[in-house]
Design brief:
With about 325 residues, the chain is an alpha/beta fold. Helices cover about 40% and strands about 15% of the residues.
Amino acid sequence: MNDCMCPYYSLNKRTLNVLTTMRCNAQCRFCFERDTARPCEASTNDLIAAINAVGAEEIGLVGGDPLVHPEINRLILESNAKDIYLTTNGIALVEDIGILEPASIRKLMGLNISIHAPSIAGLQKVFGREIPADYFIGVGAWCHYAKRLNPAVDLRIHCNLQRGVVDSMSNAQEMIRLAESLGVDTVRFVELQSLAGKDIEMFVDAKKDVFKNFESYSEALLNPNRDGCIRYLPRLSERVRTEIKTICPLTTVVKDFTVEELEEGLATLELLHQREVEGNSPLRVLYPDLRVSTRYDDSLTNEQRSYEEMRELMLERIAYKQSPEYEIRKKDAEIA
């Protein structure tokens, strides 16, 4: 398995994230790849060979920032994956509108632009650097250019919810208006996925902090898409699709999950285990010679657990949330 290849569970597709480079033109504080020990500056030839050998239906080109990679167009054009997505902070698109060749744009299924604030000042704070004053104008121009070349390409803004930046419904509405002006198809609000120590203070709960008064949030929870943790939010905009990507109860305890959310996590665990038993989990399909059983990260102990161990832990969490002890602690915390 190439160190740059990260297969992950997608409920309907064989999916592969490709860490194209660790280099980035921004310094986001919350970036969980920034301090990784994974070696991933593979040669372009090795990356292409690994992608095509795996035979994934869908690949996500991530980083770092993939547009910093000097041969990003070659990576796109020589990959045999059916669906190719690329995630970028958009700075390179503004600095050079032609950084992606027309043939590359025509081959992309989607492009995610990480815009985590509705203002230049806010975005500079998040990116940890100065950005062009015409950043939003440049991103909009690139989006319209891309749509002319490939009308089917799905252009999405990814906005990480962060305390003091985007942490309220009014902030979310600003982001939606920005998305409408840029001509993208989707804006996705994302709960921060990997936080530790002092960074926990940045975490924003999508439902409790941002969409708490929005009537269709609970409606949206009933219709998760193939990734399981993505929720659609109807009626927020007539021009762009709005979504929330929530963190998974199987991978973190940063969030105070409700019983319903924990039960949903348990259902996801059961589904993934069933796929594993049937021998058609994404990991098994991508790597038929894989001998070990799937393990699940448990952030309570920072260890990996088996299906049986993780199931027992989830049941314990659900039982605790339904117990008188939890209700007493909750009331004491509210009083304090």
